[in-house]
Amino acid sequence: MLKLFKLLGNKRLFILLMGLILFIAVMGFTLGSRTKLSWPEKFVKDTVGFVQYVFYKPAGYVAGLFEDISELHALQEENEQLKIALSHYTRDKAYYNWIEQENERLKNDLKFTNAQKEMYDYTWKIAHVISVNDDPVNRTIVLNIGGREGVKEGMAVSSAEGLVGIVSHVSNFTATVKLVTTMDARDPNSNGIAVTAQGKENQIFGVIESFDKTSGNFLMSRIDDKKTLAEGDLIVSSGIGGVFPRGMIIGKVTDIQVGEFGLTYTATVKPAASFTDWKELFVVFAPEAEKE
Amino acid sequence: MRKRKYILILLLFLLFIVEGTIVPWLIPPSWETRIVPHLVYIAILFFSVYENRHTGLVLGLCFGLLQDIVYYGSMIGAYSFAMGFSCYLLGLLSKTRQAPLPLMMIIVLTGSILLDSILFGTYSLFGLVHEPYAWALMNHIIPNVFVQFVFALIIYVPLRRQLEIITRRRSVEDKA
Q1: Distances from the Cα of B116 to the Cαs of A97, B16, B30, in angstroms?
Q2: What count of CB pairs under 8 Å joins A to B?
Q3: What's the pLDDT score for residue B14?
Q4: Contacting residues for B83 by C-beta, under 8 A, at least 6 apart
Q5: Using the beta-carbon criterion (under 8 Å), do A140 and B72 form an inter-chain contact?
Q6: How far off is chain B from A11, nearest CA to CA, in Å?
Q7: Can you tell me the mean pLDDT for A50-69?
Q8: Were both Cys, which of A47, A280, B10, B108 would link to B152 (CB 3.0–4.6 Å)?
Q9: Residue A45 at interface with chain B, using a CB cutoff of 8 Å
Q10: Which CATH architecture fits A193-271?
Q11: Which CATH class for the A73-182+276-291 domain?
Q12: Cross-chain Cβ contact B77/A30 below 8 Å
């Protein structure tokens, strides 16, 4: 017993233990749903963010230049694909305008309230990436727009290809985005996304809750009926629940298997976004959030 | 002497910026999630070996906290704790201030494994990761060790020289 006291009398060990307790307390306190940052955090984020902005952009240009040169031979193929996409687009545009106007007219006839009409009227604001943290467990990126532009915690962030992440913390001029690769069903702070398949919106319901780090795919669980879902279907968010915007592209189904308890099915979804070589991203503003 | 030290710390900050902005562009896309070099940490290890382990501790805590706040995804404190603790520990282990190159490289190797292991331990303690340690080891810890080793070899000569100038002047001042 005396020996134990002597050991604790060691100043260095005492400080170490106190430090350990302090750090675990800080980690536990900052873990979870903290919505607002304190001003020192905001100050540090904004100052560092400014310096990072100066560095990231030129680096991106130089890297992009080398990439362009190495991909010169693929240009013709890309051009062809773009032409096909453009012809599809012009065809769909005529069709879309028709449907949109009909939709508008029907909404008016059914006396939709203003809030109901504008519910899915999202605005996509462009943002530049200013730095990247590739920590395998805690992957985040920092964007150059923040609280001043109206960004709030929980907003969806998308690249041109598909859903990338969710805004986790906002300072005045920067916003940190937690990538969807950190999604985990067993983590109480990570929310699932209600999803459906494009073109089968009324038949398919599923939830994307976790990202398999070893294979690099999402797991779409709680699918009731696997008959309508096929491999190669494009999975988009359905907006059920109202928190997460609808129509965010998530990925393609590669495999469907029986789920954990044998009652539902689980599909493996290959992400549409590449999660590498970040340049411009879009923050999706829901109309409700703008009004407040 | 003071001025030299401040310039070195400013360079550390510059390295921190480079780590988040330029390094991701240099890593090939297929390796981007697997190589996450902690360059600042390696430089701070030199501080704690060749200058003073308490300097290493303070620098590790500060730059770890900076990393935690700027890339605040799920929690604050993981990097700060891991960097401060392992810098102090490795400074404690290498008692001589005249550590030769092989010893320093062994310190860098153990240091990088230690940092990533503490980080992984913290994350699994708080339930952010459920994969086994063997996965982390193969996925990012071992690739990191190689990159950080090469980085340590590059900065060894210039950084050690600067740090020795600082400590030599200090010992001269102490004697006088």
Answers
A1: 54, 17, 20
A2: 142
A3: 93
A4: B38, B41, B44, B60, B61, B63, B64, B67, B115
A5: yes
A6: 15
A7: 84
A8: B108
A9: yes
A10: Beta Barrel (2.40)
A11: mainly beta
A12: yes
